[in-house]
Amino acid sequence: MARALVTGCSSGFGRATAAELSARGHEVVATARRPADLADLDVAERLALDVTDDASVAAALAAAGPLDVLVNNAGITVGGPVELVPLAEVRRLFETNFFGAVRMLQAVLPGMRARGGGVVVNVSSVSGRVAAPLSGFYAASKFALEAVSEALHVEAGHFGIRVVVIEPGYFATSLSDSGERHGVGAPPYDELHAQAGAIEQRLSGGERPGPEAVARAIADAVEHPPEGFRVPVGTDAATVLGARAAMDDVTFERTMREFVGLTW
Fold first, then answer.
1. What is the CATH number of the domain that holds 157?
2. Of 125, 135, 142, 189, which residue is the catalytic one?
């Protein structure tokens, strides 16, 4: 049984992961900015945690005690064309998705290293490998997390710490439904927005699976080292990342444009 802290458990992947790990017999510390959102989760402990705040991170980790597993899941999304998303929103996005994850890593890794092992799961996205139009800044935050994870895989692996990157495709979560969107309801990018709305539907076959499959993938990766340190989840993730790996840039763009019907 491992003691695992999961960030961003108020909904979506984090909530499902906390429940899945707990059901498998692990000791789960579920965290969220508003601990009241965690009241009905059947876990060992529920703690307040804002990954963008140093003091909050320090307090939560002091309360949690030694950890075997960290699941860096907390995240937000901001959409819109590169030209029109306010820089303040870009900074807010990176503060949670990238710096928040790094803040947790830097706080947890010394203890894992001293104990000679542990597992870090960073929840990225298919967008961490392929940037779609109107999602450039969200993708950038996940690209950055992927880069840090790739370096950490070697750095921390030397000390017996496993690093896993989970790359979900399109799943039905509150994150996918509630993100801020800028500059898409009027010219000059409204037509692109209209076309882009069909991309996820085309890639997912019109289905919006719930977060449980991602939770299972995370729990499996905690319990059994995957073949590689990156784990795509979902048929759309497998399709897109498989094509990306097999094609050069020109062929990949042409193929994806044809597949999703993008004429922009």
1. 3.40.50.720
2. 142
Q: Which residues contact 169 (CB under 8 A, 6 or more apart)?
A: 126, 203, 204, 232, 233, 234, 235, 236, 237, 238, 240
The pair phi, psi for residue 187, each rounded to 5°, is -55, 150
Residue 256 belongs to a domain: no
pLDDT of residue 176: 53
Residue 201 within any structural domain of the chain: no
Amino acid at 204: S
Specify the number of domains making up the chain. Answer: 1
- Please state which of the ranges 176-180, 182-186, 233-237 shows the lowest mean pLDDT: 176-180
Give the active site residue among 125, 127, 135, 138: 138
Q: One of 22, 124, 149, 204 is an active-site residue; which one? A: 124
What digits encode the pLDDT tens for the residues 11-66? 999 999 999 999 999 999 999 999 999 999 999 999 999 999 999 999 999 999 99
Catalytic-labelled residue, pool 10, 127, 135, 141: 10
Does residue 124 carry a catalytic annotation?
yes
Domain that holds residue 80: 3-186+208-232
Q: Is 138 considered catalytic here? A: yes
Does some domain include residue 27? yes
Tell me, yes or no, if 178 is annotated catalytic: no
**Annotated catalytic, 10?**
yes
Whether 129 maps to a domain, the answer reads yes
Q: Full-prediction pTM beyond 0.90?
A: yes
